[in-house]
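Weekly sync, protein design subgroup
Attendees: M.S., D.O., the rotation student, P.L. (late)

Item 1: inverse folding check
M.S. brought a backbone from last month's batch and wanted to see whether the design step gives back something sensible before we order anything. D.O. pointed out we never logged the input encoding, so this time it goes straight into the notes. Structure tokens as presented (477 positions):
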């Protein structure tokens, strides 16, 4: 769930700032760890806590204000039997509202937010309002139809700030970020941070240096500041050029996501293939955490109030958080290996199955259960784009029940989960390899669920089809 919300959230951000993607570039979000540079660090931290806390309250306040307005106006239309497509009647209602509220009903203005949250700097209110209103607009139809509830923003969410409020500089050879919170002259309010790169495996220092050098191909937008536990981060979506590689446009790599093996990759031609993420120790850690989580849950249920229960609930939250972090870094590792394999093969395209859960009607519970798969696909896509590799989704129809050697399709060709045995040609294959090869060679590229034979079939008969991932590892215990 956390992952899902974060994804949609950052997509909204990028959409606002960039519109359509430019050719041959991609967006990568740098996560820069900041440390406060100040004489009175305590006062600065107090201010940061205040801003981040006000920002999430303001986000909820803006969103619920929008919702309330829309509900009200709908009732007015309904009661007066006004056709919402009749511009003249609509305008009349709008004017009435304007006299009543002193403002047009759609606009939650800067002034309203300023009044409610006077300590929030304007570099935050402007961008925050924009983002919250935009994501409200996207979900509005479903909310008014009653099929989803109002999005709730949580404490610890990244705080929007304007691009102009973030300034990079170099002081004593170190990268420094100045957050300009507004005000003029003597009243100007600045917070200064040093960027801490740590081991810098992703080479963030180099990218920041390129931004500092004003390299034209590197630009950032929609920065956010995130306070997580006691760490402070600057999240910076940077548009950078794709790697210029010689890739074979006719060669694809198929990725099969599954239970037995987290990912299996195979090239559409030749024999290159590889299971990814088979490291037993990692899976074992995950299993242990899940088991511990369940045991804790059981003990929480049996506890009767008092400090014991509170302590255990906190302990459980920590285990859950640890597991989410674990799955996240695990997905990072798997996606990295998948893309490395494609780069080694010089494949022009990576193909994956379209997962369920993209449709509007898919339940939150389903997405919650399967977020780790969505995240994995998203990470593969992100990393592939950086290498200039295209990513497409294919119809999952029959991918695991068809023989990759002779094309024969019969149900029950998988006597065991891990094995594929062809009833026609007798091919005896690793089931994941067989599926990955079928995916790599598939020409049934789809962009939405409705185009998939697999989903059509499932809708008609409630048949469970080929997919194996629905029962796979999930983040929730
Ligand atoms: Zn066969």
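Designed sequence read out in the meeting:
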């Amino acid at each position: 769930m956390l992952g899902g919300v974060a994804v949609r959230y950052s997509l909204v951000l990028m959409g606002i700032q960039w519109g359509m993607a430019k050719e041959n570039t991609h967006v990568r979000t740098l996560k820069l760890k900041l440390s406060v540079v100040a004489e009175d660090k305590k006062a600065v931290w107090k201010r940061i806590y205040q801003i981040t806390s006000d920002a999430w309250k303001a986000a909820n306040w803006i969103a619920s204000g929008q919702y309330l307005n829309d509900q009200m106006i709908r009732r007015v239309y309904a009661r007066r039997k006004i056709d919402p497509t009749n511009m003249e009647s609509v305008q009349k209602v709008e004017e009435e509202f304007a006299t009543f509220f002193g403002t047009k009903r759609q606009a939650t203005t800067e002034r309203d937010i300023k009044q409610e949250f006077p300590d929030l700097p304007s570099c935050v209110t402007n961008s925050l309002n924009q983002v919250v209103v935009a994501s409200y607009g996207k979900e509005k139809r479903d909310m008014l139809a009653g099929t989803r509830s109002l999005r709730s923003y949580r404490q610890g969410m990244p705080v929007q700030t304007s691009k102009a409020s973030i300034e990079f500089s170099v002081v004593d050879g170190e990268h420094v970020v100045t957050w300009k919170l507004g005000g003029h002259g003597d009243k100007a309010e600045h917070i200064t941070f040093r960027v801490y790169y740590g081991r810098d495996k992703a080479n963030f220092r180099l990218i920041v240096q390129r931004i500092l050098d004003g390299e034209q191909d590197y630009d950032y937008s929609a920065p956010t500041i995130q306070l997580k536990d006691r760490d402070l981060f600057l999240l910076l979506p940077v548009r950078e050029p794709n790697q210029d590689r010689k890739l074979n446009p006719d060669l694809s790599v198929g990725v099969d996501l599954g239970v037995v093996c987290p990912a299996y990759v195979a090239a559409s031609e030749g024999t290159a293939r590889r299971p990814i993420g088979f490291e037993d120790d990692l899976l074992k850690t995950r299993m242990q955490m899940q088991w511990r989580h369940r045991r804790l849950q059981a003990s929480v249920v049996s506890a009767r109030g008092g400090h014991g229960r509170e302590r255990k609930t906190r302990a459980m939250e920590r285990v859950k958080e640890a597991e989410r972090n674990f799955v996240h870094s695990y997905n990072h590792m798997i996606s990295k290996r998948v893309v490395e394999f494609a780069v080694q093969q010089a494949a022009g395209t990576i193909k994956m199955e379209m997962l369920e859960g993209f449709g509007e009607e898919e339940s939150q519970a389903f997405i919650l259960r399967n977020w780790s798969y969505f995240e994995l696909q998203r990470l593969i896509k992100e990393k592939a784009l950086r290498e200039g590799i295209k990513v497409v989704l294919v119809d999952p129809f029959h991918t695991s029940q068809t023989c990759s050697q002779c094309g024969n399709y019969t149900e029950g060709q998988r006597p065991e989960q891990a094995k594929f045995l062809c009833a026609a040609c007798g091919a005896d294959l690793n089931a994941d390899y067989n599926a990955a090869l079928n995916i790599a060679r598939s020409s049934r590229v789809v962009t939405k669920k409705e185009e998939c034979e697999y989903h059509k079939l499932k809708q008609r008969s409630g048949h469970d089809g080929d997919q194996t991932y629905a029962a796979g590892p999930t983040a929730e215990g």
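Discussion: The two ends are 13 Å apart (CA to CA). The chain has eleven helices and 16 strands.
Action: P.L. to compare against the previous round before Friday.
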